């Protein structure tokens, strides 16, 4: 990725903490070299802290200045059985309980340990999420349809029917790679993550079918795969529109335990990056772009970069911009002293 020199950029050096399974030495990230970081006040703000703790998460939330109201959904991945890279319940507990929040998920469409509600609830219990808050599997009682405005591939998005029960959504994302999408960021979390099983199939097949046909549609080296990437952006835009054009949403992403594989993989590739920090924004495109930029600047980001590029993962950001969901350029504001 070509790097941009930014006028009046402020240099922040971060000594990265070690991660499980990594043998690399802690190194500095030069924040002045983040490609899409700008100083223009018109760009959305992305807040950053290296403090990956409940206090750090709370500080990132408070910096946003938007207070959830009504019945609050906390969208995150509860992780596949056998995968422990997901967000830890103890990390998010204070923030979720501050708003009497409900953790929300949908069943998977690919099989595995979360493809049925009964099995999914067992994984949720095993991973400790139901000990900190109620957990709602939103498509337990089927789907509901929400419109996609201006979509190229999707005319509507099928989401868990229980989405109708919530007034506000806090999107808690564990940033990592993904076997098909290349990267798992906030946009994937609200597209595939909020989609029902039928909706997931529609996104993966770019609107062609709600049946399970992933193996026959869109291998990663075909134009159809790009349609899948774009369909994720379109579904994410539909969810944002549903929550008052994003006015009733906020986004926090945690960059730790980063594998090239998603939390939906029961046997993920080893974590081979150092932890980076917590980022927060009201713009999901800017947030995902900042995470991508940090991976490119990380001295141990090669594996994740290859995964993102080989799956054309960053293309989701370009299509999300076309959908009007956000901007790629951002102001980065450190919360650290």
Describe the protein.
- This protein is of the alpha/beta class and 337 residues long.
- It is built from nine helices and twelve strands.
- The strands form three sheets. It has an eight-stranded mixed sheet with strand order 4-3-2-7-10-11-1-12, with helices on both faces. Strands 5-6 form a two-stranded antiparallel ribbon. A two-stranded antiparallel ribbon has the order 8-9.
- Strand 2, helix 2 and strand 3 form a beta-alpha-beta unit.
- Helix 1 packs across helix 2 and helix 6 packs across helix 9.
- The chain is globular and about 45 Å long.
Q: How is the secondary structure organized here?
A:
Layout: E1 45-49, H1 54-64, E2 72-75, H2 89-98, E3 102-105, H3 117-126, E4 135-137, E5 143-147, E6 156-160, E7 168-174, E8 176-178, E9 182-184, H4 186-191, H5 197-204, H6 223-242, E10 249-255, E11 277-281, H7 284-297, H8 302-310, H9 315-322, E12 331-334
Helix pairs in contact: 1-2, 6-9
Low-confidence stretches: 1-27
> What value does the Rg take, in angstroms?
18 Å
Q: What is the count of helical runs?
A: 9
Strands of the widest sheet, in order across it, are 4-3-2-7-10-11-1-12
Strand content: 15-25%
What is the succession of H and E elements?
Answer: EHEHEHEEEEEEHHHEEHHHE
In whole angstroms, the N-to-C terminal distance is 30 Å
Total strands: the figure is 12
> How much is the average pLDDT?
90
Question: Helix coverage percent of residues?
Answer: 25-40%
Please give the largest β-sheet.
8 strands, mixed
| Shape type | globular
Return the structural class: alpha/beta
């Amino acid at each position: 990725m070509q790097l941009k020199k930014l006028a009046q950029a402020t240099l922040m050096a971060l000594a990265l903490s070690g991660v499980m399974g990594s043998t690399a030495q802690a190194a500095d990230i030069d924040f002045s070299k983040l490609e899409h970081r700008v100083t223009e006040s018109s760009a959305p703000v992305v807040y950053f802290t290296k403090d990956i703790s409940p206090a750090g998460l709370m500080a990132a939330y408070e910096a946003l200045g938007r207070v959830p109201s009504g019945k609050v959904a906390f969208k995150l991945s509860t992780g596949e059985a056998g995968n422990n890279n997901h967000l830890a319940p103890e990390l998010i507990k204070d923030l979720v309980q501050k708003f009497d929040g409900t953790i929300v998920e949908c069943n998977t469409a690919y099989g595995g340990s979360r493809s049925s509600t009964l099995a999914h609830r067992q994984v949720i219990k095993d991973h400790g999420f139901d000990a900190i808050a109620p957990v709602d599997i939103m498509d337990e009682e089927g789907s509901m349809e929400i419109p996609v405005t201006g979509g190229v591939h999707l005319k509507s998005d099928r989401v868990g029917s229980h989405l109708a029960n919530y007034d506000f959504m806090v999107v808690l994302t564990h940033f990592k790679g993904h076997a098909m999408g290349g990267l798992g960021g906030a946009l994937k979390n609200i597209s595939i993550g909020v989609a029902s099983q039928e909706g997931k199939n529609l996104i993966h097949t770019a609107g062609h079918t709600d049946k399970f046909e992933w193996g026959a549609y869109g291998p990663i080296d075909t134009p159809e795969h790009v349609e899948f990437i774009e369909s994720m952006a379109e579904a994410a835009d539909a969810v944002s529109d549903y929550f008052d054009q994003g006015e009733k949403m906020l986004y926090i992403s945690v960059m730790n335990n980063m594998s090239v594989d998603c939390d939906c993989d029961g046997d993920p590739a080893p974590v081979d990056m150092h932890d980076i920090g917590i980022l927060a924004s009201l713009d999901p495109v800017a947030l995902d772009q900042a995470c991508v930029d940090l991976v490119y600047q990380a001295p141990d980001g090669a594996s994740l970069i290859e995964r993102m590029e080989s799956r054309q993962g960053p293309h989701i950001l370009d299509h999300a911009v076309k959908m009007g969901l956000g901007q790629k350029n951002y102001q980065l504001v450190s919360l650290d002293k």
